[in-house]
Amino acid sequence: MSQLYPFEWTFNAADTVSAVPRFLAIDLGNKRTGLALGDDATGIASPLPAVVAPPGPERWTRLARIVERETPDALVLGLPLHMDGSAGKAARRARAFAAEAAERFGVPVHLVDERRSSLEADEAMGRSGLTHKQKKTRRDGLAAVMLLQRYFATD
Questions:
Q1: Which UniProt keywords apply (predicted)?
Q2: pLDDT value of position 1
Q3: Which of 45, 79, 114, 148 has the fewest CB atoms within 10 Å of its CB?
């Protein structure tokens, strides 16, 4: 009996798929930090549960766990500029956070203008039928999704 394929062939999906860079978006807040994960190949970003912790060691610890679990290739951080494009205290804090995050996590941090991202998130949920409380819990992650989509659109 002749063999149709006289060689041994194995399939390993990891060998056929090139690594697609993953990005973790961070929408900093004083109490809640919105997060989203996405990749540039598909342009799809998905919200993650928010980190509920004020600025400080606890927030860094929680973010470190997420970075370790999700292994992003880069972070995308919202840069809160004034409506006229000027930078204020919040933008300086975001830049300081970006520098520390790059050092702590060893990945590049890209800053993205976050003007109106929370408003866009609210508008996206406007006719969703969600209660006020449900919207509040989803707003941070959706704002982070908006940041990633902006980054993908300009990258």
A1: Cytoplasm, Hydrolase, Nuclease, Ribosome biogenesis
A2: 46
A3: 79
In whole angstroms, how large is the CA radius of gyration of the chain? Answer: 19
CA distance 46 to 144: 9
% of the chain residues with pLDDT over 70: 81
pLDDT tens-digit readout, 13-26: 454 444 789 999 99
pLDDT band with cut points at 50, 70 and 90 for residue 27: very high
Nearest to 148 by CA among 59, 55, 24: 24
Q: Which helix (H) or strand (E) holds 142?
A: helix 132-154
Are residues 27 and 80 in contact, defined by beta-carbon separation less than 8 angstroms?
A: no
Which of the following CATH numbers is that of domain 19-154: 4.10.910.10, 3.30.420.140, 3.40.50.150, 3.30.565.10? 3.30.420.140
- Relative to beta strand 74-79, strand 109-113 is parallel
- Number of Cβ within 10 Å of residue 60's Cβ equals 17
Distances, alpha carbon 103 to alpha carbons 29, 33, 76, 82, in Å: 20, 19, 15, 27
For residue 133, give both structure tokens: 């409380």
Q: What is the band of 121 on the pLDDT scale with cuts at 50, 70, 90?
A: low
* pLDDT for 107: 97
Q: Where are the domains of the chain?
A: 19-154
